[in-house]
Amino acid sequence: MSQNSLFLPDAVFVSNAKDSKELFEEISAKLLAKKYVKEDFFVQITKREKNYPTGIDTSPIAKELPNVAMPHTESEYVNARLIVPIALSEPVVFYNMIVPDEQLQVKFLFMILNNDPEGQANILAQIMDFLRLTPVSELQRLFNFTNPEQIYQFMSENFKK
Fold this sequence. Notes:
Layout (H helix, E strand, L loop, with lengths): L12 E3 L4 H14 L7 H11 L3 E2 L10 E3 L11 E15 L7 E12 L5 H14 L2 H9 L3 H11 L3
Parallel strand pairs: 1-4, 3-5
Antiparallel strand pairs: 2-3, 4-5
Helix pairs in contact: 1-2
């Protein structure tokens, strides 16, 4: 695996969280244990999500796709440059990035960890391209995986930098 990969096998998760706070708490603890994030990551990503929602309505891409979210926070709270895919067993409410007071039922997350202050928008754009350019049937396959290993394989093979 190349060093510049945006995905790592131990940074892919499946969660049963019931809301975004529980989800952020769970994933932050796991990422902190692996030293991918700093101590105050949980507080910061929760605060940033509240002020700048990251839910994406995928219906313009295809009606049959579940909504996604791309939570992230400032580079000073992370130690790595990664995309952390998170599949949710049940949809969780996030707010729409474009229409911040609109609730979206989100089923899959691409959490962005970026210790390069310049690069946040770049990774966001890469994920948007991935969603736009990957065939809908393939995205459906990805969003239905319940095994971190399958998600990691799919992202490693299909996500173009």
